[in-house]
Amino acid sequence: LLELHLPDTDGRQMIRSLKAEATLPFIPLIAMATNPARDQVMAALDAGADEFIARPVNDAELLARVRAMLRLKALIEELVSLDAPLEHGVRTHTRELARAQTGMYRSEKLAALGRMAASIAHEINNPLSAILLNIYLLRQSLPPGQPIHESLDTIQQQVETIARLTEQLRYF
Question: Are 169 and 162 in contact (CB under 8 A)?
Answer without folding.
Answer: no
